[in-house]
Each structure stands twice: as structure tokens, then as C-alpha cells.
Amino acid sequence: MNATYGSLIQMYGARNYAWGIPFVSLVVGLALDGEALVGVNYDPMCNEMFHAERGKGAFLNDDPIHVSDRPNLSKSVVGFDLSYAGGDGASNGLQVIQAMLNDVGSTRTWGRRRWEYPTPPLGGTTYTSTTDWNPGTRWRLLLIEEAGGVVTDRAGNRAGLFSDGIIASSAGLHAEFMRRTEGMAWRNPTHRTV
After folding, report:
1. CATH of 5-64, one of 3.30.540.10, 3.40.30.10, 3.40.50.1000, 3.40.1160.10
2. What is the pLDDT of residue 148?
3. Containing H/E element for 59?
């Protein structure tokens, strides 16, 4: 049997760092046949290490973390990434924000990938991305899955390495988000997914 392994060491926030904004993280991951096995997301500014291993759970430093049990989006934060959305991506994402603004606990556009993915396990958040995401994301999404969360593409299928847009949250918040965004332009993929 031939297995394909992959590894990643990546810095996120290089642009922030270059501009003197202290929002950076280092990501290390290992995958087998396209499936993330281990992921580490270290924030040197806060000395926080998020890590997960397939089947072993998710942790912040040495403490186990789990997705929130908040019952609905009205008591949750909905986070968005619009930073690299080209074409209609940003305006479609803004349509979602505008539609939900008065009916959710709060909204955020993080602009800091160190926070985007770990927040569903840390509190009542749903995270969405309008962007084409890169391989480093897969390892951080392992963190959400291992914390008991759901990570899908815009159509509700389990997110893959090249999914176009993601939704990451607890199962209940994810289902509500999918219902509330049905028919919105943001839900239409902008490229082929794998």
C-alpha cells in the first residue's frame, strides 16, 4: 500500500508582522492521503498553543477544549473572513452579515487567522470564510472537528482541502446558519471543490 504523507510549517500574519501588527501564528501539520492527522497552531504573542490529533481531542495548551453549547445564533458571535475575497466574494459575504446583524449576539471580521479557527471551540461562535483557503487551514479545522464541531463547505458537505468557503461551528449553530443563509449568493461556490 502506498500512502501519501504531507507536512506543513507555515506562518500566518506575515503581512501583519511586516506592518508591526502583533497578530501572527505558526501552524505545523501532518496529513496522510489528504486527511489531517495532527495540527498545531501556536500564537507566540499570547503564548497559546492550540493542538489536535485525529481521534485524541483538541487542546489549548494542556486544557481540553470543546465547541460551545450555546443554543442559537442570537446568543453567539458570527465571525467572517472577508480579507481575501475577490470579485463578488466580499459583497456576498457582506450580504450575510447585513442579514444577520440584528439577530445574532455579535459579528466579527477577524482578519487574523490565529483567531478565526480556534474561536468555535472557545465560545459560542460560528465562523465563515468567503475565501479560497489554503492547506494550512485543514490542520486548524482538525482542531474544530476534534473539539466536537462541524466544518463544511457552502453546500453543507464536509470541508475538503480545496473547499471554496467554509462554515465551522457546533452542530446546532451550523444547522441554523445553513437555514438562515439558504438562497443567498454567498452560498454559491466560486470554483470547483475537491
Report:
1. 3.30.540.10
2. 92
3. strand 57-60
pLDDT in tens, 43-83: 888 898 989 999 999 999 999 998 888 888 888 888 777 65
Prediction pTM value: 0.79
Domain boundaries along the sequence of the chain: 5-64, 73-187
pLDDT in tens, 139-172: 778 888 999 998 888 889 988 766 777 788 889 9
Whether the CB-CB separation of 152 and 164 falls below 8 Å is answered with no
- Collapsing DSSP states into helix, strand and coil, what is residue 48? strand
**Euclidean distance between CA atoms 121 and 66, whole angstroms:** 5
Q: For domain 73-187, give the CATH number.
A: 3.40.190.80
